[in-house]
Amino acid sequence: MAIDRFQSVLMNALLINEKDQISSCTSKSPQFMANWIHLVGRPLVDFVSPSSAPELGRILSSARVHQSSIGVIEVVGEQNGTLACASIACASNMSDGKVLLGIEPFSLEAGDQPSSCLPLLYANVSVFEALSIAPAPVIITDSSRRIIWANREVCRITQYSLPELLNKTPAELFQGPNTDPKTIQEIRDALVARQPIRRTVLNYTKNKDPFWIDMSISPFHDSLGAVRGFIGIGANVTQFITLNRELELRERAAQAANVAKERLLGKVSHEMRTPLFGIVGALQLIRNKNGVSGQMQEFDIIEKSADQLTTLIDDLLDFTSLEGGSFRILKREFEILHLVRQVIAVSKAKAESINVELRSNNTHGLTDQRMFNDP
User: Fold this and answer.
1) Running DSSP on this structure, what letter comes out for residue 43?
2) In angstroms, rounded to a whole number, what is the distance separating the alpha carbons of residues 212 and 239?
3) How many other C-beta atoms are found inside a 10 Å radius of the C-beta of residue 34?
């Protein structure tokens, strides 16, 4: 049977008034216009089969309640009431009870029975019904990229009603001041080349509120392979992109704070070394000029304490170098017993002030062997 793929259901359209009468018709097909133009003012139910009358009523009432609906009806001839064709009917609520009914007829080859076509037509309708209530936005355009159908999610996100969307291009409805022109040009180039494309675009609602949409767009063809239009299925990724940008801003702020901390540590460390070197130098001069043998140990303790403070400052500088990626490990010889004696000497006065005796016990017989460490 010669059943074409689904084409633009609004290529052939009837405007149905609140009394379910045909108010007007429009089509690019002269044959369609010839068949319907003289039927204006007549009830549409007169031109469908009795078995299709309930389905027609459902399509029209559902469109008035839910903005859009779709189904399959059997159109009959004006004179003898015999079946003329089976058609997909796509209804869109206009206003004041009026409904725009798109009709897409399906021709039959000789010998085919109309009833044999209906399962295939209903299969297409089932897909459309699923798309109409899908949580993802779905838009169908004709080959000139004008909207001929959109599901409820598109209306919810964009705040446009379906009649406001019809016969408009997505570009004139949704693009705004911060929409990336490079991305739009890439989409246009793909559509001109009749190629599928997927891009994330910043769009705007009817009230000029921005939202991000990740949209996949593909052409659809008729039975001869000609492109009849495009279908776009997307996802509202506004929340994801907003959260991702907030995380990027926080990461940049943390990195900036870390850099500021490193700079502060480096500056403080360098500033502390300058007066410390002055203290160490003055101690050496006092010991060389006025040193008394009984005071040499005290001078040694002060000098060793200054050396420890210098090492601590060097450690702070090493920390900033480590975070900055420029840390180097140094190698220095030291005598472990000498180090133990230094620790005891520096801490002895503090220990005695709290009545604690501090001493070392070399139970393992360690000698002044040389070892290596990083100062």
Assistant:
1) B
2) 8
3) 10
Own/partner pairs for 145-153, CB < 8 Å, 24+ apart?
145/169, 145/170, 145/171, 145/191, 145/230, 147/173, 148/8, 148/9, 148/10, 148/11, 148/102, 148/229, 149/9, 149/10, 149/68, 149/90, 149/92, 149/102, 151/68, 152/66, 152/67, 152/68
| Interval 245-287: pLDDT, tens | 888 888 888 888 777 777 776 676 666 666 666 666 666 666 6
DSSP assignment of 318-334: HHHHHHHT------EEE
* Long-range contacts at 160-164 (CB < 8 A, ≥ 24 apart): 160/205, 160/206, 161/67, 161/93, 162/67, 162/68, 162/92, 162/93, 163/92, 163/93, 163/94, 163/95, 163/100, 164/206
> What predicted TM-score, i.e. pTM, was given to this entire model?
0.48
List, for residues 27-43, the tens digit of each pLDDT value. Answer: 777 877 888 888 889 99
Query: What angle in degrees, to the nearest 10, is found between the helix axes of 238-290 and 296-324?
Result: 160
Instruction: Please report, for residues 93, 229, 341, the alpha-carbon distance to residue 293 in angstroms, rounded to integers and kept in the order given.
Output: 108, 103, 19
Show the 3-state SS of 50-106. HHHHHHHHHHHHHHHHHCEEEEEEEEECCCCCCEEEEEEEEEEECCCCCEEEEEEEE
Is residue 355 classed as helix, strand or coil in its secondary structure?
Answer: coil
Task: Answer for the pair 24, 15: CB distance below 8 angstroms, yes or no.
Answer: yes
Number of helices (H), then strands (E), belonging to the chain: the values are 10, 12
Structure tokens given for 334:
């030291």
**pLDDT tens digits along 183-203:** 999 999 999 999 999 999 999
Q: Tell me, what's the pLDDT at 114? A: 42
Say how many C-beta atoms besides its own lie within 10 A of residue 145's C-beta.
20
Element holding 284 (H helix, E strand): helix 238-290
Mean pLDDT of the chain: 75
- Looking at residue 5, what DSSP letter applies? P
